[in-house]
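Protocol check, entry for the methods section draft. Step 1: assemble the input record (protein sequence plus ligand SMILES). Step 2: submit for complex structure prediction. Step 3: store the structure tokens unaltered in the notebook. Ligand used here: zinc ion. Step 1 record:
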Amino acid sequence: MDHIEQTFQVNYSFPVHFTEHLFRAGNELFGDFLLARRGDTVKKLLFLVDSEVALHHPLLDGQIREYVSGIEGYALAGILQLPGGEGCKNDRRYFYEIVDAVNELGIDRHSYVVAIGGGALLDLAGYASAVSHRGIRHIRIPTTVLSQNDSGVGVKNGINYAGKKNFLGTFAPPAAVFNDAFFLTTLSDRDWRSGIAEAVKVALIKDAAFFGWLEANAPLLAQRDPDAMEYLVQRCAALHLAHIAGGDPFEMGSSRPLDFGHWSAHKLEQLTGFELKHGEAVAMGIALDSCYSFVSGRLPEEALQRILGLLLQVGFEITHPGLVVDNAESPLLLGLQEFREHLGGTLTIMLLRAIGSGEEVHHLDVALLQEASHYLFHYQPIHSPQ
Amino acid sequence: MDHIEQTFQVNYSFPVHFTEHLFRAGNELFGDFLLARRGDTVKKLLFLVDSEVALHHPLLDGQIREYVSGIEGYALAGILQLPGGEGCKNDRRYFYEIVDAVNELGIDRHSYVVAIGGGALLDLAGYASAVSHRGIRHIRIPTTVLSQNDSGVGVKNGINYAGKKNFLGTFAPPAAVFNDAFFLTTLSDRDWRSGIAEAVKVALIKDAAFFGWLEANAPLLAQRDPDAMEYLVQRCAALHLAHIAGGDPFEMGSSRPLDFGHWSAHKLEQLTGFELKHGEAVAMGIALDSCYSFVSGRLPEEALQRILGLLLQVGFEITHPGLVVDNAESPLLLGLQEFREHLGGTLTIMLLRAIGSGEEVHHLDVALLQEASHYLFHYQPIHSPQ
Ligand SMILES: NC(=O)c1ccc[n+]([C@@H]2O[C@H](COP(=O)([O-])OP(=O)(O)OC[C@H]3O[C@@H](n4cnc5c(N)ncnc54)[C@H](O)[C@@H]3O)[C@@H](O)[C@H]2O)c1
Ligand SMILES: NC(=O)c1ccc[n+]([C@@H]2O[C@H](COP(=O)([O-])OP(=O)(O)OC[C@H]3O[C@@H](n4cnc5c(N)ncnc54)[C@H](O)[C@@H]3O)[C@@H](O)[C@H]2O)c1
Ligand SMILES: [Zn+2]
Ligand SMILES: [Zn+2]
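Step 3, stored output:
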């Protein structure tokens, strides 16, 4: 024997629930999930809560305590508040705060960490859970549009390090996700809107009918209609989940269709010192790459105009000084190189051939990018659609 | 729709090679592995080397530089030395040293971290690689008996935190393992012997024929015969790999057959302030749990005597003051509770019914443990076997 080929599979499975008032008496979803998994020793629950969520939902803490006390076979180990937003991913202290709590409260691999918050808090909590005891089960309760329809249903986590987004992190599927629509009512308008960009993105690369639905419902979405948002979150989450399950869940290759519009978005977030929110930057990135798809002869102009029209109608800005490409030295172009490094291996960028259908390329042409940027900055909506 | 069940599989596969003088000109194994995986951009290699290995193999650094310069499509990003032994897992500084190197040298998800060293250095390097960029490919080149036949071919990594072994870590299969027998020639006698305990363990729970081979070759193993050790490493690694592939690779359940003898071993390591090496403690743990298997009526006395005889003949101590159980307050007993916490969920302990065949139980009886400890401390080898 000179070599052994080791081969095995690991199966992952988790439910994503859609509900309202998860911890209100009478909502059995969360309790039923846990009861079905109880063992012969009491399992612990450690809650990690986004401070902004706690602020806007002052009854939550009491509701959780009451609710958990009714679940047989489980005990509340603690409720820890952590600052929401990017700050919690920027300072390692919060990572160690969670790890220390896991240690001191005796949370083991059969206990659960339950994280309630925006994408940032979930990314931090997911990472700390994934590396404590080589992986504690974690339940995600996303509270923003972006985290309910995109980041919170996925398999990635991470914190920032040395000024780089998500430099430390893992792929670690959650034990379950509970999307509670009620949380969305307290979001700022910017955070409400921001998450819609991911729905536009996934519709553009996967689902023309969903794009049509978004166009038809843009006014309702802009007015914060809860029913429209409920459908958007469910459809976007479903498309996201199907993509992960059908593809390369742990991203071993260089292809990332779901990163459509993201190469420039990541760079814009950084160029603006994270003044722009992720979804706001993604909306601009979608606009730019759609223009590129048009000027490079892939996408019909009429489709492009529908895309830009939808983004504007939802309330997004589609231009930004950082988005200008006027020569080969434009700062935005560094984003291409950084995106390649982030993927590792070969640069792979998603473009559009039609609404609902993408095409991957391995090179963007600077002259065409200039043209695309020029088109975008001179775009005049012909009429407000609908 | 009220819920989506997300289900997917991830496939893992990696080769484990057995060779000698991996980086000597003419040995194509390592180069061939990489050449088969080259891409259209140059991939980087970051080497992490156990300082003791570097000390005992002063030509290694030059050999690596020479060897890597001949592999097309790859570039040497750096060779970083880190202290070998448990110290590198105890101080977080080394973790950040690797992460910083990954950042500064631009090691991406398609580059490779190549770790050369004992189990401790491999655990550290594997962890830092697993969380940088959400997982950089890592190649393991284990240099101790224990890491070649056990830890280095497995899927776990970790560092110590808050005084707890492997408190932070992940499950992350390597990209490849290269076991180079030449490294074993420079081990201390204690490290040479220590790794043999894992072979005895896996033979006892899985493979009576291998146990017979170990008995027949005990004198050669004790005299550091390289051919006997080569067979031992290959057979033990193969059994270990087959167990992982066939079972629960990422240890989602509470059953850990490969932890036979380990509940008391972990405690002994801790009680002695890690004065005892892992394998030395495992030999004692095997002895104790074999005695328990006998006094609880599972294992025939003749089999027990063969086990104790083999351990002694290889040169292991089988008793230690810390191993005494004379009443319900004996410190060793805390190890049972800690082991349960470590597994999470239900206490699950492997015992023996015969050489080559185990049985899991969920409870150890203190009176029987006292009896087992008493038997062990009064054991007189009847004859030296063979
Ligand atoms: N893991 C992934 O796959 C993935 C994917 C995309 C984005 N992300 C990450 O997600 C993060 C962005 O997430 P986000 O858009 O949810 O923003 P966020 O988590 O930064 O939240 C935005 C703000 O809203 C607050 N907030 C959260 N829920 C609230 C509520 N119900 N009511 C009022 N305020 C509330 C937060 O405290 C924060 O101040 C980024 O760090 C990004 O890197 C991760
Ligand atoms: N990841 C896993 O699944 C797993 C399983 C079992 C043990 N472990 C871990 O492995 C570690 C023990 O590993 P180990 O037994 O290899 O000990 P080790 O890594 O501590 O090495 C022992 C000593 O030998 C030195 N050394 C290494 N190679 C040498 C060589 N070729 N010549 C001379 N000196 C050399 C090291 O620098 C160290 O000082 C522990 O931290 C343990 O927790 C991990
Ligand atoms: Zn995004
Ligand atoms: Zn062991």
